[in-house]
């Protein structure tokens, strides 16, 4: 599933190619693509026609397009394989094209939502006073947000009485961090994924946040992480941060810091990758 860097790459592409264009037609080609829009595909299309798309926004992994002159936004759920592509009108339809949005200008391009596994979709939602779609109002700010409060994060981290990787993946605590970038930031911080959050000092929390930001900015610089053709930007191009990963996906390969073979452990229906020497497990775990 795309994490913050991948979603931000898509958002930047939409800002360049879709923002401030007026919708003339919407085709919903698969009902599952609008299943989160309770009123259905016909209503979704009707409520977009004739309106301009505002500047795309993002919080963590969540991306939305404000609909100008309304109190609503189009929330994009990319899921496991969702793609928002800007294509010429005459480009052949993708095999898994689910929604097409046309505009009234001479640019000659349209927005397509393509989704092989149909886990994602588009839906219209009312905005909160802060400008977020109401269904994601509970999502915390992400570490690249200028308004992210490091001190408040540290306090909340200590109160959670959990383990650090669980905390990093808790989108109500800090958004945008998924399995890949959690493993990368923990490797850079020399922290085991099961380290109790109650043991964190302010300097340790500050150092971890610094590594989270560094790894995300590094991924952004090269278009994000793409392990297959399912994640692409709006031009259909893959990111290549997978070439720079230090932890994730490197089981049995030498740690780039000490040479010890990296390990993988099953963790919450996922995998955690770590160096057994650089990231020693805690002596004891917190009480439930």
Describe the protein.
The chain folds into 2 domains: 4-136, MutM-like, N-terminal (N-terminal domain of MutM-like DNA repair proteins, Alpha-Beta Barrel), CATH 3.20.190.10; 150-274, Helicase, Ruva Protein, domain 3 (Orthogonal Bundle), CATH 1.10.8.50. The chain has helices at residues 4-17, 41-48, 150-160, 164-168, 179-189, 202-221, and strands spanning 23-28, 57-59, 62-66, 72-77, 82-88, 97-103, 109-115, 121-126, 263-267, 270-274. Strand 2 and strand 3 form a beta hairpin. The protein has 288 residues and is an alpha+beta fold. The strands form 3 sheets. A 4-stranded antiparallel sheet has the order 1-6-7-5. A 4-stranded antiparallel sheet has the order 2-3-4-8, covered by helices on one side. Strands 9-10 form a two-stranded antiparallel sheet. The chain is built from 6 helices and 10 strands, in the order αβαβββββββααααββ. The mean pLDDT is 92. Helix 5 packs across helix 6.
What are its keywords?
single chain; 288 residues; alpha+beta; Helicase, Ruva Protein, domain 3; four-stranded antiparallel beta sheet; 6 helices; 24% helix; 20% strand; elongated
